[in-house]
Amino acid sequence: MTGQDTSDPEKASAPPPRVDGGLQGWLTVLGGWLMQFSTFGYVYSFGVFQGNPHVALDYYTRVYLTKNTPSDIGWIGGVTFMLACGLGLVSGKLFDMGYFYVTQVAGAALYIFCIFMLSLAKQDQFYQIFLSQGVGMGLAIGLTLVPTLGVIVHHFLRTNRALATGIALSGGGCGGIVFPIREHFRIFKLLLKHSFAYTVRASGYVVIGCMALSLLLMRAKPLPATPSGTVQPKALSFFKEIPFVLHVISYSSFLTLSGVYFPIFFMQLFAVQHKIDNDLAFYSLAIINAASVFGRICGNYLSDVFGAFTILVPTAIITASTIWALLGVHDRGSLVVVSIFYGIFSGAAFSLIAAATASLAKSPREIGCYNSMRNGLTFAIGGIALLISGPIQGALVGTTFTWTRAVAYSAVRTLRLIC
């Protein structure tokens, strides 16, 4: 006799209670952070190429792609964001089917390949940059984004779910700090001495190390067995839920994402055109991304306490207000203030989309089993908005750099989150 009651075979064979987090869970968060650092961090530094004040003021616009307009160049970032989000429907489905490592390895390999293909792009060959940076990197990020968020959710089904997601997504903001500053010194000091190819390859080596470590750290956590007879829902069935439809179409996806990223693409160029200090104009992008780290983590922490939608609405109002405030930027101080406030609240707004989507699930089991499909749908529709936003904003700015129209369009679109 051991004193243990084994009279009930079901109790004796029952698995131990599921524990959220733990060492493996937080290491997975770190791996997700590194993946976001390598992917979205690079994308968030797009303004370095579109508007670098130290190299002929705009490296793509005035040096490397002189035959193309700002609207043309806007398609590079727009397509990257569109594919990064739009492919979530496919990668989310693959993740739910158990192909997490397949999507991560394939996405990482494609992303690294595209960085080195970008380094081979020739001057004034728009299609080469568009295919490698716009299409290729976008597809690669699309393979990794939703599965990265999904595997983190598996480790935090009941507690700290939004916080863990926000910490991982803050990697994109940190990458948006490091890559612009790193590219600044490379371009300013080495580009004329070496080449555009040297600059891009130098960043590629950093990405290789970060992605390799990310793949080693992230681990999928098995979910509890699905009861017999359970039928996996089809993607279109989620559109029968009115809250989900409103969330996707208006609250957090299409209308909002078509405007919210205007400062990411054009802040540096805006500052340079308004004759604000060139050094500070360059670092405005790093300031935005640094502030977004704070916003992503704090916004998601507050959503765990008060609810995702409760935090999302005021966040959108303040984000839209900071975009409007661009029209009042006229000196160093105002540029820094607007950059900080925009970074905090836009970072929170983007990272809260995943938390808001998860909050629509009916049970923790649904979050674990099918939430990646929900996220995939949300990001896929948002990807369409991101595709058209950059070119529209670039066309509104035009070759005469008329900023009022683009700012008004972007701010109003962002405000549609609360309508």
UniProtKB/TrEMBL annotation:
Stretches that traverse the bilayer: 73-92, 98-118, 130-156, 162-181, 202-220, 244-268, 280-302, 308-327, 334-357, 377-403
InterPro entries given in the database record: MFS, MFS_trans_sf, Proton-linked_MCT
Protein name: Major facilitator superfamily domain-containing protein
Entry GO CC: membrane
Species this protein is from: Collybia nuda
MF annotations from Gene Ontology: transmembrane transporter activity
Compartment annotation: Membrane
Keywords: Membrane, Transmembrane, Transmembrane helix
Highest taxon above the source species: Eukaryota
Membrane topology note: Multi-pass membrane protein
Family: Belongs to the major facilitator superfamily. Monocarboxylate porter (TC 2.A.1.13) family.
UniProt KW Glycosyltransferase keyword: no
